[in-house]
């Protein structure tokens, strides 16, 4: 099992970050992330303090040579089953692969915190596990590296999108989120 934790800082207060990233549709396109072919919304239900979200993803990337006999590129399709908790400001995700779902376990949590200096701290933590001897750990390392690359690109895209939105829309943060 490979665990990861990534901390980044948005240049904006938490109310602005949370409102624009988590509540504003179409701020930026997740298909622009590295290794993403498609990201298709399947379901989105608002339940007050929580939003339930399901998206189907198709990704591509480098499959380690030792894992190529087991993992084919078309097998890199999965459903993201997520919950956005507005009160806790957390986005929790379980990945449900289309293939090998009994062998793959992947979850992550995205948390937003007021950094106390006008910025917002974003903490992404999670794990990926492929329960196959020998090739599992090799594949886990490759997948986690791709997750980290996408997380860093997502952070940069989000921060840039917030900057652009704030200027173009004379945005004023909502209070009480």
Please characterize this protein's 3D structure:
The protein is of the alpha+beta class and 177 residues long. It has helices at 14-23, 135-168, and strands at residues 2-10, 36-46, 50-59, 77-85, 90-97, 104-114, 120-130. The protein has a single domain (2-168), classed as START domain (Alpha-D-Glucose-1,6-Bisphosphate, Chain A, domain 4, 2-Layer Sandwich). Helix content is 25%, strand content 39%. Helix 1 (14-23) packs across helix 2.
Looking at this protein, list some descriptive labels.
177 residues, alpha+beta, Alpha-D-Glucose-1,6-Bisphosphate, Chain A, domain 4, 25% helix
The CATH topology assignment is: Alpha-D-Glucose-1,6-Bisphosphate, Chain A, domain 4
The tally of strands reads 7
* Helix/sheet category: alpha+beta
CATH homolog superfamily: START domain
Low-confidence stretches: none
The backbone outline, from C-alpha atoms, is: elongated
Oligomer: single chain
Rg over CA atoms: 17 Å
Q: Give the CATH level 1 class.
A: Alpha Beta
User: What CATH architecture would you give?
Assistant: 2-Layer Sandwich
- Distance, first to last CA: 35 Å
Helix content: 10-25%
Strand order of the largest sheet: 1-7-6-5-4-3-2
User: Number of folding domains?
Assistant: 1
What is the number of helices? 2
Give the helices and strands as they follow along the chain.
EHEEEEEEH
Give the overall average pLDDT: 90
Tell me about the largest β-sheet.
7 strands, antiparallel
């Amino acid at each position: 099992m490979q665990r990861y934790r990534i901390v980044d800082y948005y240049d904006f207060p938490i109310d602005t970050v949370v409102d624009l990233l988590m509540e504003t549709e179409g701020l930026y396109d997740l298909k622009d992330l590295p290794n993403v072919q498609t990201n298709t919304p399947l379901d989105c239900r608002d339940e007050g303090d929580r939003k339930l979200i399901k998206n189907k993803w198709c990704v591509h990337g480098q499959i380690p040579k030792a894992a190529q006999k087991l993992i084919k590129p078309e097998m890199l399709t999965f459903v993201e089953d997520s919950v956005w908790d507005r009160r806790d400001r957390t986005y929790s995700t379980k990945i449900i692969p289309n293939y090998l779902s009994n062998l793959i376990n992947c979850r992550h949590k995205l948390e937003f915190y007021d950094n106390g200096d006008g910025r917002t701290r974003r903490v992404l933590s999670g794990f990926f596990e492929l329960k196959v001897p020998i090739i599992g750990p090799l594949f886990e390392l490759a997948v986690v590296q791709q997750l980290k690359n996408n997380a860093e690109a997502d952070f940069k895209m989000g921060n840039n999108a917030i900057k652009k939105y704030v200027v173009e829309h004379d945005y004023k943060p909502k209070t009480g989120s």
